[in-house]
Design a protein that fits this description.
12 helices; 12 strands; 358 residues
Length: 358
């Protein structure tokens, strides 16, 4: 099989973790006899430094011409000036929009070997298995915004906007995912206050009732959901929500398995290449020190092979290698509080060794 992958390493630890994912991709190509054509392009802060634009045209074109995109992370203190013309994060928002990636899948699973790395008690988190589906190209992140002087005060606004088709497509995708899992879907909104949430709730209920009658469906307000995630995370299967709520709730949920460093995500549209990335950020404080955990990016590579290439066997091999290496006791610093740890490159090598021995 021939595939064209674009790597967007980005900023901070991005290049280090993507380098390990690339080694894993090469190992998979060899093991399964595929030919992967891999190219690298710039996004985020590094792209601002080199071109003034966090998402140069050339990067967009390369992504659109690929089968799938693997991203590291963007951003860092160097580009944090609130008065700057543009920001690294704008590049990420724009590539999502350009590729039509309206759904962001964030699986939150506890790894049995790491349950004690969670800040929450074992009896609460053990066995948690949630798939978050975050709407990714609408809502307040993309609504009309601006600044003004109102009543003599500097004022800023940003508007939450959702249309019926935007809600329909993401709820449909989430309900299909639920059908292939435990058959439960939770929609999270703030319909007691926000108008777009009332539309969201109406549309979500209609789509599920009409098209997925077999699904066990419920709605939860976002503030209550923030609580439930910490008190009874096992109650949830698939959770679908808007862009802003999904951004916040998935960072919260990432603490259930213990480390942000273990969690991959997939952003997909109705057609065309998807974008696969770790859910963590660029961690500038540890960049360049061989300390970062590459496993989230390596697991994102598995998601890429499964979702974009329909290669379950290859994806399973990577996931099994990750579990085997964890079971052997190897840990990067983020998941080995106080005990000996391995570096980014060493972790990549262990995964490759495990793949070779399968
Ligand atoms: C994420 C990130 C991005 C987001 C930022 C970097 C724009 O936090 O993928 O969750 O808010 O969507
Ligand atoms: Mn986020």
């Amino acid at each position: 099989m021939q595939c064209k992958f674009v790597l967007l390493p980005g900023d901070g630890i991005g290049p280090e973790i993507v380098a390990q994912a690339e080694r894993v991709l090469q190992a998979i190509a060899e093991k399964f006899g595929h030919s992967f054509e891999i190219s690298r392009h710039i996004i985020g802060g590094i792209a601002i430094d080199q071109t003034g634009d966090p998402l140069p045209r050339e990067t967009i074109d390369a992504c659109k011409a690929s089968d799938a995109v693997l991203l590291g992370a963007v951003g860092g203190p160097k580009w944090d000036d609130p008065n700057a013309k543009t920001r690294p994060e704008a590049g990420l928002l724009k590539i999502r929009k350009e590729l039509g990636l309206f759904a962001n899948l964030r699986p939150i699973q506890t790894f049995p070997e790491l349950v004690d790395a969670s800040p929450l008690r074992r009896e609460i988190v053990e066995g948690t298995d949630i798939l978050f589906v975050r709407e990714l190209t609408g809502g307040i992140y993309f609504g009309p915004s601006g600044t003004d002087v109102i009543d003599g005060h500097d004022t800023a606004y940003q508007t939450m906007v959702y249309s019926v088709p935007e809600v329909e497509r993401v709820v449909r995708l989430a309900a299909e995912a639920a059908r292939n899992r435990r058959g439960k879907l939770t929609s999270v909104d703030k319909a007691n206050v926000l108008e777009p949430s009332r539309l969201w709730r109406r549309v979500a209920e209609r789509v599920v009732k009409n098209e997925f009658p077999e699904i066990e469906y419920n709605v939860v307000l976002v503030d209550a959901m923030a609580m439930h995630l910490l008190s009874r995370p096992r109650d949830y299967d698939v959770v679908v929500t808007s862009n802003l709520f999904g951004d916040i709730l998935t960072d919260e949920a990432s603490m259930l398995p213990g480390s942000l460093g273990m969690l991959p995500s997939a952003s997909i549209g109705s057609s065309g290449p998807g974008l696969f990335e770790p859910i963590h950020g660029s961690a500038p404080d540890i960049a360049g020190k061989d300390l970062a955990n590459p496993l989230a990016t390596i697991l994102a590579t598995a998601m890429m092979l499964r979702h974009a290439m329909k290669r379950n066997e290859e994806a399973d091999a990577i996931e099994t290698a990750v579990r085997t290496v964890l079971a052997s006791g190897a840990r990067t610093a983020d998941i080995s509080p106080g005990t000996a740890s391995v570096g980014t490159k060493e972790m990549g090598s262990l995964i490759i060794k495990s793949l070779a021995s399968m």
